[in-house]
Amino acid sequence: MELTSGARVAVIGGGPAGSLSAYFLLDLARQTGLTFQVDLFEPRDFNQTGPPGCNMCGGVISESLMQKMAAEGISLPKELLLDAIDSYVLHTDSGAAAIRPLQEEMRIASIFRGAGPQGAESQSPLPWSSFDQHLMQLAQGLGARHVPRRVRQLVRDAEGRLEVHLQPARGESDEPEEPYGVYDFLIGCVGLNGAGVRLFEELDFGYQPPKTDRAWVAEFYMGAEEVHRRLGHAMHIFLLDIPGMKFAALTPKGHYATFIILGDDVNEELARQVCLSPHVRELFPEGWETPVRPCRCQPRINIGPPVHPFGDRVVLVGDCASSRLYKDGIGAAYRMAKVCALTAVTRGIAAEDFRQGYWPACQEMDRDNRLGHMLFSMDGLMRHLSFFRWAMVTVIREEQSRTDDPRRLSSAMWDTFTGSASYRHIFRRAFHPLVLWRLCVAMLRSLLPAGRGR
Ligand SMILES: Cc1cc2nc3c(=O)[nH]c(=O)nc-3n(C[C@H](O)[C@H](O)[C@H](O)COP(=O)(O)OP(=O)(O)OC[C@H]3O[C@@H](n4cnc5c(N)ncnc54)[C@H](O)[C@@H]3O)c2cc1C
């Protein structure tokens, strides 16, 4: 079952996974002398502010993704990049520690997925543009056709091809209609927020979506000057002993500070508790009150592997399939979109082709995430044990104060929160005998009378 010239391809969902799948497929077609017709179905208008234009995320682009994109010739225009983040500050109940990367050129950037937070439209023209819109334009530049509609149903025809049925537009009749098109190959990139995954569960090739948790994201307006005075160019990570919370992060983003909370199905009450914590409040201007209705959302985050995300002529990519645990979801979408396109063009589009070409990459990511789960459970331990927390902050501070130190724990923390390395690499550094030794010494010191004062 090959993808031959003239094939019709439907990509459902125009987030990073969808736009990049279309981009890589068309790029490979160009290199191999093939022609495909690629329709990219995406109802969201990324040029709108607030929830209608946004795919809900922290908006941090890892340095490994920036490097991969640059190597591929994909440039990110200046107006997309709101802040270059050059360091992290780790806030715990036992103190704070600043973490700078080993190499000065290591930078991560913050972006808006849509046209910015609700209310930003009052700043016209907007001084930034949408990341997701940019990726979609890259795919369109290679010939993808944007269909600005939601897909309602997928049906296999007698020959095994896939019919795409659209949700009726406002004012249209709700009667079942003719399919919009019949496709040789379908890539599902519907993310996890919405009913998109059901389209693929109903196709009966054994797909089950990944396990998810609910996160919490808010954009707080402070004005660019205040944001930089308060946060600098650092991302602030909070590892606090608040039940239900895994970690929270405050990221400078131009005039805004993006606050995300990850945990076990974060709700408004937990978000309120975290926002009221003194460690968080001290980063906001004095007397600053959390806005009653900031631009906020509670998106779903991928925390477990999918089951069978491929069948004959169909494959799932991005958050609705395998992604990286708690970080670099856009980088994961980039990687998997590329493997998916390569498999389809060089092997074929039968279930067996995806099992051999695409599935091993998913499994590798899922295996790495298992180590990620172990690291985050260590982090849970740290949040509950004050002497362990103190030891960790102490070791990071010591590492950061020495220029000749390999800074293993600091760099493991940097990579944990930037997503710039696999959990396997992070694990090796975090559990290096020297790191464990320093942690043990610091823990013992913390138990001595006046130990923590030193
Ligand atoms: C709280 C939080 C913070 C995060 N922070 C970061 C971060 O800082 N950096 C990072 O790299 N990643 C981050 N992520 C992960 C990142 O958001 C995702 O990994 C990434 O968006 C996945 O891209 P996607 O294209 O698979 O899915 P999405 O971005 O969710 O895109 C799916 C698209 O499919 C469309 N769609 C859905 N159903 C249909 C349908 N029926 N018909 C047509 N279209 C449809 C939707 O409109 C949407 O545009 C974060 C996630 C969360 C929850």
Descriptive overview:
- 36% of the residues lie in helices and 21% in strands.
- With 454 residues, the chain is of the alpha+beta class.
- It has helices spanning 16-32, 63-71, 131-141, 196-201, 224-231, 268-276, 278-281, 329-346, 351-357, 359-384, 386-401, 408-418, 423-430, 433-447, and strands spanning 7-12, 36-41, 60-61, 83-85, 87-92, 95-99, 108-110, 145-147, 151-156, 162-166, 181-183, 185-188, 212-214, 216-221, 234-239, 245-253, 256-263, 295-297, 300-302, 310-311, 314-316.
- The strands form five sheets. A seven-stranded mixed beta sheet has the order 6-5-15-16-17-14-18, sandwiched between helices.
- Helix 1 (16-32) runs parallel beside helix 3.
- It folds into three domains: 7-56 and 131-211 and 302-368, 3-Layer(bba) Sandwich (FAD/NAD(P)-binding domain); 81-110 and 213-301, 2-Layer Sandwich (D-Amino Acid Oxidase, Chain A, domain 2); 373-447, no CATH class.
- The radius of gyration is 23 Å and the shape is globular.
- Bound molecules: flavin-adenine dinucleotide (FAD).
- Flavin-adenine dinucleotide binds next to helix 1 and helix 8.
- Residues 12-18, 41-44, 55, 57-60, 150-151, 189-191, 193-194, 196, 215, 217, 260, 299, 301, 318-319, 323, 328-331, 333 line the site of flavin-adenine dinucleotide (FAD).
